[in-house]
Amino acid sequence: MKESDRNTDMNKQSMLQLKGIYLAPYMQLATALIGKARHAGGNMFRHQIDTLGILIDYGYIDGVLLKAACIHDLIEDVPGYNQNSILEIDSESAQVYELVLEVTKRKGQIKSDYLRGIIEHGSKKAKILKCADRISNMISLGFVTDSSFIERYCEETELYILPIALNVDYDMYQELISLIITRRKYLEDCGWFEKNK
């Protein structure tokens, strides 16, 4: 079989699998995040959709993973959110909810402990979702002008997210490295490192 035929067959299989995934109810739940502003501008709803797009861009077509991407910050960013709104959607809702909980930082939890927990105990889907989430965040970081925040975020990505990406998706790992390099190039160009020796 020729490579082009194989790619066509794979695309058809992916289309059939994606055709059966109903994301709209999860996207509707994510609209609760429209009012939540982001440091880089925009809102948290758009970040959910961006994370979904990154997963699809990397070829992930698992329904639970894609649904969780749509609402991955919902519980963390909407205090007291009614979990039944998630659990009542479809036959995969419980799995989606569990995956969202895996990538949710608990109230009062130290960020480094939260990220170490994903490294040490996270499921493969949680790790993939965390990598897509961080790629979205690192891209948005290009619109942030707070140099200290950028460097802290790059350091955190190096320490905690790169090991996760290396474990689950080498292509995501490479993109994250590239994003760290470009963000630090910005810091170098604006003289931040020189000022903070």
Mean of all residue-level pLDDT scores: 91
For the secondary structure, the number of strands is 0
In percent, how helical is the residue content?
A: over 70%
CATH class annotation = Mainly Alpha
CATH architecture: Orthogonal Bundle
For the biggest sheet, the summary is: none
Q: How far apart lie the N and C ends?
A: 58 Å
Apparent shape:
globular
CATH topology: Hypothetical protein af1432
Tally the helices.
12
CATH superfamily: Hypothetical protein af1432
Structural class: mainly alpha
As an assembly, this protein is single chain
Describe this structure in words.
This protein is mainly alpha-helical and 197 residues long. The chain has one domain (3-195): Hypothetical protein af1432, CATH 1.10.3210.10. It has 12 helices and no strands. It has helices at residues 3-19, 24-30, 44-57, 63-71, 74-77, 84-87, 93-102, 111-121, 124-140, 147-168, 170-189, 192-195. Helix 9 (124-140) runs antiparallel to helix 10 (147-168). It is globular and about 55 Å long. The model has no long low-confidence stretch (mean pLDDT 91).
